[in-house]
Each structure stands twice: as C-alpha cells, then as structure tokens.
Design brief:
about 300 residues, single chain, three-stranded antiparallel sheet, Phosphorylase Kinase, domain 1, five-stranded antiparallel sheet
Length: about 300
C-alpha cells in the first residue's frame, strides 16, 4: 500500500488533537526543525499530555515519527493534511486508483461527491524509505525540511504556471487547486508519448505541440523548460502538455535557451519515433513568435 493510500485510510480516524499536532509539526518543519514535546505542545496549542497521546497515535498510524529527542512528519502525514484540505473544500469525496507513477510524483484519480473525476498529483521528490530512516536515525532535520520545501514548492510552481496558461489552449490541463505537496488537476484520458502510441496524424500532432509551445510562450509568457515525450499526453488525436513545476517565465535570462532545449527534445523524439524531420531553427523561430508559420 502506498503512502497516499495509507493517508487516505487514516483520514476519517484522526481526532482533533491529532490534527492540531500534525499542524504543529508542519509549522515546526518549516521554521524550527525537530520539536520536542514541549515545543510541539506550544506550537499545537495543546497541553503536553495531550500532545504526548497524539504523537503516540500519529506514530502508530505512520503519520509522524520520532527523530532524536523530537518528532517529524512522514510523507503520509503531509498527504493526509492535503487530503483533509480538499475534503473540507468539497473538492474530493473519494480517492480512486493510481493513474501514473513517476520518479518524482504519483497521480491518483480523485472523485467528487457528484462523481466528477479529477487527477490528484502528489509530489514525492526525494523519495526516501522512512523505515530506513527510523532504523538509521541519521538524517538531520534540515534534510527533512529540504524535502518538504522541494515538494511544497513544486506543487505551488505547477499550480501557478497552469493558472497563467488557463484558458489559452485546451492543450494545458486546468489546475483546480493545490495543497502542500499536491496539485488537483483536470483529469485527462491518454497515454504519454514515451509509450510511442499510434497517432491519427503524427505530423499534425507535432504541429499541435509546437502551436501549444508558441501559445505558452507568446501569450502565457511561459516556457516548460523540461519538455519531452514523458510530459506529452495523447489520446491518439489531441496532445496535452503536462508537468509544469520547472517552468520559467519569458523574462528569465535563460528562457530562449530553455525554449530551444524543448524544441530540440520534441523534434528529436518525433524523428526517432515517427520518422518526421524538423528544421529546429525554423521551429524555434515559430514557437518564440519570430515567425508566423512553421514552414
């Protein structure tokens, strides 16, 4: 069972003092490191004896763990707080099956009470085994803070990038909300181009990718900065550009270089997979807005 599934199972069982203790641990992780019971009690605004009971319960449920003389959140602890946030906002009623598993994130189907489906993306940058951490007890609190910061920042950056692109093209997934290390997205039905699926018209698909890159650059002021076949999704006809946490604005000093990197990566893949030759300079001039046609 994944950390996300464990978090979902814990959601309804947590008591108020456990939620308050989790919130105190989160505040500590972003500012004070690893709190002992006394500091955690102050940050949770609870009596020390209630915090002691809460930390014992959270540790049994895998949502917090001891480190040295204090406590830290686990990945499950972070994710259960994000899930609660979405439930409280009436955005999620149930967690569905896993849709995709990647090196730095997992994506699950999430359902509203009315049955509408979203995609819940959970960042897991710097995946670590907390079992090993418990055994070794060798990681410093700064490392844990760095893990949280990286995942929280990635979720926020992707949400912000997609909000800037919202309404410009159907090729960009709609971001619904974000919380902590997660982003709630419009669900798209397709497979990654890295699987080399059959396309109704490979040349048209390539053209649509360049058109979307042009829209992102000239209208949204954004460069994906890590575009490849792994973050291009297709149903055989349409192509969507997904995964935007590393995106930069056109004001970034390296935006042109990063845009050319994306152009070359897309061109190289379509050349390998579908035998389509691309003049990379002409494609760059088009997506950057210097010319109005690809030809």
């Amino acid at each position: 069972m994944s950390s996300t599934e464990r978090a979902a199972r814990s959601l309804k069982s947590l008591k108020d003092e456990e939620w308050r203790t989790l919130a105190g641990l989160e505040r500590a992780a972003t500012g004070f490191g690893t709190p002992d019971l006394g500091r955690l009690a102050r940050m949770s605004r609870l009596p020390p004896d209630r915090v002691s009971f809460a930390t014992d319960a959270l540790e049994r449920k895998g949502l917090a763990m001891r480190r040295g003389g204090g406590y830290v959140l686990t990945r499950e602890g972070v994710e259960v707080m994000a899930l609660k946030d979405y439930v409280k906002k009436d955005l999620i009623f149930a967690l569905g099956a896993i849709i995709a598993k990647g090196k730095e994130s997992d994506v699950y189907e999430a359902l509203t009470e009315e049955g509408e489906a979203y995609a819940l993306k959970l960042y897991k940058i710097g995946r670590v085994s907390f079992t090993n951490v418990r055994k070794k007890r060798a990681r410093e609190s700064a490392e844990f803070k760095s893990w949280m910061t990286a995942n929280y920042d990635a979720a926020r950056r992707e949400y912000d990038a997609l909000k800037k692109l919202e309404g410009l093209s159907h090729a960009f997934p709609r971001a619904v909300a974000y919380s902590r290390s997660t982003v709630l997205l419009e669900e798209l039905s397709g497979v990654r181009l890295s699987q080399r699926p059959d396309l109704q018209d490979a040349e048209a698909a390539l053209t649509s990718v360049f058109e979307s890159m042009r829209t992102a650059f000239t209208m949204g002021g954004m460069v994906n900065a890590d575009l490849s076949e792994y973050n291009l999704l297709t149903d055989g006809a349409s192509v969507w550009l997904i995964d935007w946490p590393q995106a930069v604005g056109t004001s970034h000093p390296n935006s042109a270089e990063l845009l050319m990197h994306d152009v070359r990566a897309v061109a190289a893949f379509f050349r390998r997979a579908y035998g389509i030759e691309v003049d990379e300079q002409k494609a760059f001039d088009y997506v950057s807005g210097k010319t109005t046609t690809l030809g």
